[in-house]
Amino acid sequence: MDEQRDTTDRFFPRFDAAGLVTAIVVDADSRALLMVAHMNDAAIERTRATGQAHFWSRSRGELWRKGETSGNGLTLVEMRVDCDQDALLLRVRPAGPACHTGRRSCFYRRVEADGSLTFLTDDAQG
């Protein structure tokens, strides 16, 4: 199946050794990069069934729905898969900040040449 993943019209995610696939999450309207997470088969199926983004927490070892405690859920607009089906792109409509820090995006700092970090304004995150 591996050699056919880039030509098939069937969804056959290629999970890593831990049973996970990387999920890149972007705002469907602004196209801003919001977060990167991991999904297992259960997270993918739950996301598809409910229309709400679910992920696998590697640190907690459990399935979780984004926003289940904060209320800042992610409503799925579209799920895409890359050419060899080992990464997903979730286009979502966020109900609030995507980052657990309360920021719109988890990518709020730029790494400078000297290794320091520059905090970006909200407008510069996209």
Key terms:
126 residues, mainly beta, Ubiquitin-like (UB roll)
Layout of secondary structure:
Elements: E1 21-27, E2 33-39, H1 41-50, E3 54-57, E4 62-65, E5 74-81, E6 87-94, E7 109-111, E8 117-119
Parallel strand pairs: 1-6
Antiparallel strand pairs: 1-2, 3-4, 5-6, 7-8
Biggest sheet strand order reads 2-1-6-5
How much β-strand is present in the residues? Answer: 25-35%
Broad CATH class: Alpha Beta
Per CATH, the superfamily is Phosphoribosyl-AMP cyclohydrolase
> Which CATH-level-2 architecture?
Roll
Describe the fold and architecture.
This protein has 126 residues and is mostly beta strands. The N and C termini lie far apart (36 Å). Helix content is 8%, strand content 35%. It has one helix at residues 41-50, and strands at 21-27, 33-39, 54-57, 62-65, 74-81, 87-94, 109-111, 117-119. The strands form 3 sheets. Strands 2-1-6-5 form a 4-stranded mixed sheet, covered by helices on one side. A two-stranded antiparallel ribbon has the order 3-4. The mean pLDDT is 93.
Summarize, please:
With 126 residues, the protein is mostly beta strands. The protein contains one helix and eight strands; from the N terminus they run ββαββββββ.
